[in-house]
Structures are given as C-alpha cells and as structure tokens.
Amino acid sequence: MKKLLIAALAVMFIAGVSRAANFTSIGVIDVQKVFKGYKETSKAQADLAKQEESFKKEFEESQKKLETAEKDGKKKEELEKMKKELEERLAPRREELLRTNEQLTMKLQSKILEAVKKVAQKVGLDTVLDKQVVITGGMDLTEMVVTELNK
After folding, report:
1. Which structural domain, as residue segments, surrounds residue 112?
2. Could you give the count of Cα atoms lying within 13 Å of 105 in the half-sphere of its Cβ?
3. Distance of CA 149 to the CA centre of its chain
4. What's the confidence (pLDDT) of residue 147?
5. Lowest-pLDDT range, 42-56, 74-88, 130-144?
6. What's the CATH number where 89 sits?
C-alpha cells in the first residue's frame, strides 16, 4: 500500500513539474523598451521630426498670411477663399506626413517582430507576449531582442 501511495505521489509530482515546464515556454518583452532601445527607432523619429518641422514652418507661414490679410481689412469672402486655398495646399503634405509615420512604424514593427521570433526560436519558446499583459511568469526576452535588433 505504501509503494502504491509513493508511486501515485511520484506521478503527481512529475505531472506537476511537466505542467510547470509548459508554462515556462512563454516569453515576454517590454515593447516600449524594445522600441526605445532599437537604434533605428531614433533614426526614424529624427527623419519624421525633420518632415514635421518643415510642415510646421509652412503651416505657420500660411497662418501669418491669413493674419496679415485680416489686419489689412480683407473681406470675409476673400479670407475664406484664402483659408480654403491654404488648406488645400497643405492637405497633401499633412497626408504625406501621416503616411510616412505609418510606414516607418510598420517597418520598425516588422523588424522587431522578426527579431522576437529569432530570439524565441534560439531559446526554445513558442509564445512571446507583451510584458504589460502578463501578471506573473514568463521569460523576459527584452534585452536579447534589443541586442538582436542592433546587431
């Protein structure tokens, strides 16, 4: 009877250990740290900032033209027409800026995803989650991913 009890406890212990091992096949990354640590992120942000600055200057010049026209006593219809023309001229630049931002973000996300997959495969993990959605557990791959990205 004692042997049967010991065998049952051993089976339960082994089942518990194997179950715990399955939980450790999950990795986590701090997505914000990865973005900040990735060298290409700062380059992309600098490129985007230059374009935003150019757009901002053009927008401010447009606003000054409107203010000057208003001070010069232009009629309401003329002011509305000027405003509409300026908006039409700036709209394509604004859209281009938004598109560029989206493209840069997608490119960075793609590279990060590729690095996450590579690191997860190296350490033998099946699943990697954002650290913010995991309360406890999981192997933190953040630094390994940043290192992989910046090779």
Report:
1. 24-149
2. 7
3. 14
4. 94
5. 74-88
6. 3.30.910.20
Residue 31 lies in a domain: yes
pLDDT of 24: 60
Contacts 24+ apart (CB under 8 A), 46-49: 47/104, 48/97, 48/100, 48/101, 48/104
Asked whether residue 124 is domain-assigned, the answer is yes
Residue ranges of E strands in the chain: 26-29, 127-130, 139-140
Domain count, the chain: 1
pLDDT-derived band at 15 (thresholds 50, 70, 90) equals very low
Q: Are 25 and 124 in contact (CB under 8 A)?
A: yes
From its phi and psi, is residue 129 left (phi > 0), alpha (psi between -120 and 50) or beta?
beta
Q: Which helix (H) or strand (E) holds 76?
A: helix 76-123
